[in-house]
Design goal:
This protein is of the alpha/beta class. The chain is 25% helix and 14% strand. It has helices at 89-114, 134-138, 148-159, 211-216, 222-233, 275-283, 295-298, 307-312, 352-365; strands at residues 2-4, 9-11, 53-54, 74-81, 119-120, 128-129, 169-175, 192-195, 205-210, 305-306, 333-337, 340-341, 371-375, 378-380. Residues 8-59 have low confidence and may be disordered.
């Protein structure tokens, strides 16, 4: 599987069923080949982009898009069946009970770390029956706007009468294969997790996991994988995006085998979060409205946190395959030439650092125009 953050494109080992995301770090507003300005802690490119390192209790919250809908997002567990797949009612009820317990355990895990947790509902009372066959998912193109994830999410949004912006749900789906391959060993695990719109606080998302993992803890331990994948859906990249060792770091977002669960038995060394991850979660008020980053609690070692790096590790939005991008006045990044808005609809999903790079490039390369840049409605000087 491949994870793409704004920072880099990094191919991960196959046992990770993490996010399968497209390259959001590419600028697709006006200039696909735009120069990527190097902004480091302490370099003052723009007055509004100063203090890019967190010091003491300073918190910079205006670095993600602020949509007008602040409704709290809820995790919705579903048993997902391709068109030709069925399971008995006894199987479904058993899976439903297991899934409800695992979600409750995951909520407790997040509660122990954040002193608050995410909303969730009980597993839906019926399996979701897809219009597509299993082959449509396993043979879907790799990456792009019509990959397996986009096909699944598009169906779920239509079913819930939502779109990528109005959705108030993170769909947690348990994918059930046809019986003849349900419990076999596979070359590739089906799964992934990602927010619909990339940066924290931009709405819903989805998590996909394998049915045998829920039932048998194979091919991966369900509970510890669930808390990791939910982290992706909440907007977190892997620990190595922030410079930590992916195999040994103590974060939920690592692959550290010390964190592996067994059934309902948690690891004796349960995973936590790195300071950058605590900060990123504090930005996601749609999921954790009562959580605030506190240096003394979440960064007791006093590590200097680089806000540019944190933003570069925001995950990519899903493509237009789940729904068209739209412009929202006063949300995210807006670029104006001589008073006319010229930024594309995807700019609403830019981080502040991306907005700053784009604005700086345009001021240098389009000096014949009167350039005005805004982020969440505020002027970037």
């Amino acid at each position: 599987m491949a994870e793409t953050s704004q920072r880099n494109n990094e191919t991960t080992i196959q046992r990770d069923i993490g996010d399968v995301v497209s390259g959001f770090f590419r600028n697709r507003i006006l200039f696909p080949g735009m120069i990527r300005f190097l902004i480091v802690c302490g370099l003052l490119l723009l007055p509004s982009l100063t203090s890019f390192c967190l010091q003491d209790s300073t918190v910079h919250s205006n670095i993600v898009p602020r949509f007008p809908d602040a409704t709290q997002v809820s995790v919705v567990p579903l048993i997902f069946l391709p068109r030709e797949v069925s399971i008995s009612d006894d199987e479904f009820q058993s899976a439903r009970r297991l899934l409800d317990v695992h979600v409750a355990m995951a909520r407790e895990h997040y509660e122990s770390l954040l002193n608050t947790t995410f909303l969730s509902s009980k597993t839906h009372t019926k399996p979701f029956q897809s219009d597509r066959f299993h082959s449509d998912f396993v043979n879907a193109p790799q990456g792009g706007d019509d990959d397996r994830a986009h096909r699944i999410v598009k169906e779920l949004l239509r079913w819930m009468h939502e779109d990528r912006y109005s959705s108030k749900h993170i769909y947690l789906i348990i994918y059930v294969r046809p019986m003849d391959e349900r419990f076999k060993s596979w070359e590739e695990f089906l799964g992934g997790a990602r927010p619909f719109n990339g940066a924290p606080n931009t709405g819903g998302g989805y998590v996909e996991m394998e049915y045998p993992s829920l039932i048998r803890d194979r091919p991966y331990p369900f509970q510890s994988t669930l808390v990791h994948e939910l982290g992706h859906a909440f907007g977190l990249a892997h620990a190595n995006c922030k410079g930590y060792d992916q195999g040994t770091n103590m974060s939920i977002m690592s692959y550290n085998p010390l964190h592996y669960s067994r059934g309902f038995t948690k690891s004796q060394t349960p995973a936590g979060f790195n300071p950058e991850e605590y900060f990123a979660l504090s930005l996601n008020k749609r999921v954790f409205p009562d959580f605030s980053y506190d240096e003394s609690i979440h960064n007791p070692a006093g590590k200097t946190l680089d806000l540019v790096l944190i933003q570069q590790c925001f995950l990519s939005p899903m493509g237009a395959g789940i729904g068209d991008f739209r412009h929202f006045e006063g949300v995210g990044y807006e670029l104006f030439f001589n008073g006319r808005r010229v930024s594309g609809p995807e700019a609403a999903l830019y981080s502040l650092a991306q907005a700053g790079r784009n604005c700086a490039w345009n001021r240098v390369n389009n000096a014949s125009f009167k350039i005005e840049c805004r982020y969440n409605g505020q002027l970037i000087e």
